[in-house]
Amino acid sequence: MADIAPTTLPPRPQAPLLDADFLARLEQLEIISRKIHAARNKGERQSRRKGESAEFADYRNYVSGDDIRHIDWNIYARLDRLFLKLFLEEEELNVSFLLDVSGSMDSGEPQKARYAKRVAAALAYIGLCNYDRVNLYAYAESVVASRNGLRSRRNLPQLLKFLEDAPLGGGSNFVAAARQFALRHTQKGVCVVISDLFDKHGFQQGLPFLLGRNLDVYVLQVLSPQEMEPELAGDLKLVDVEDEDVAEVTISKPLLAKYKANLQAYCESIRDYCNQRGISYLLTATTHPFEQLVLTYLRARGLVR
To answer: What is the third-level CATH fold of 20-38+92-300?
Structure first.
């Protein structure tokens, strides 16, 4: 009898990061900065400062040295006094993402990295629709990939390609990545950090680099259900997916209870650290519908409206 070669099925293609129906819903939203910033270049958002956009705001008396092109000559003809026309200045909002692509994100079911990329894609697309300047940084031990200055929805293919191609693996060092980001990216605006926050170098020490740039900072901690409610028992050898550290443990109910208590205490410490510094923090599991996270929870936190 002839040998029959086993049939190898191709891997099932992943669903797109964003589908057409959800894209249409995102187009109705905008990202909000809690602070009014003056950007280097004129953008699409109105600020409270007076500038030279097309929308009239007010008048003031002309003083020597003002640009005579802004004098309202119709008022001068009627009142024989010089008044300067003031306009609402438009400013550009920079929306930046620090996306964790370290080895620990390449785990969980559903996978943490995939969930994080979908959230980043949705929020970045909102920025593109509003002509914000979108900046993407993927990091592990340091910033491993970046894509800056995306504007308008025609850049959606570039956005999605960057996120799909962002490599997964390696250790996590948010402090180093945040330092690199702060050196490269000096513009003010909004910065969204998406990570599981499992970092042996310490996560909190990286946040001052972002706060030092006077950014509106949002921290989204993404965990898998296996991390939040592990179902383990017996004698196990645990291997760290990032640095391959090995620990041999006997899993028991008291040990699982201690693990959950430690995880809760860790997440609460991050939440308290963020709250004390005006940083918005949100914890989510990958089983939570990411559409609801964007449309409901992040809207309630004031990131989108």
So the answer is: Rossmann fold (3.40.50)
Give CA–CA dist 53/282, Å, rounded: 37
Cα 288 to Cα 115, 222, 223, 264, 284: the distances in Å are 10, 10, 10, 18, 7
**How far is the C-alpha of 149 from the C-alpha of 135, rounded, in Å?**
6
Contact between residue 196 and residue 119 where contact means Cβ atoms under 8 Å apart:
no
Is there a contact between 247 and 184 (Cβ–Cβ < 8 Å)?
Answer: no
Confidence grade of residue 237 (pLDDT, cut at 50, 70, 90): low
DSSP-derived 3-state class of residue 297:
helix
**Is the preceding omega at residue 110 within 30 degrees of 0, hence cis?**
yes
The secondary structure element, H or E, covering residue 239 is: strand 234-239
Q: What is the mean pLDDT of residues 69-87?
A: 80
Structure tokens at 31: 């990202």
Are the beta carbons of 50 and 87 closer than 8 angstroms? yes
21/41: higher pLDDT: 21
Alpha helices in the chain (DSSP H): 20-26, 73-79, 112-129, 156-165, 174-184, 207-211, 225-228, 253-276, 290-292, 298-300
Residue limits of CATH 3.40.50.410 in the chain: 20-38+92-300
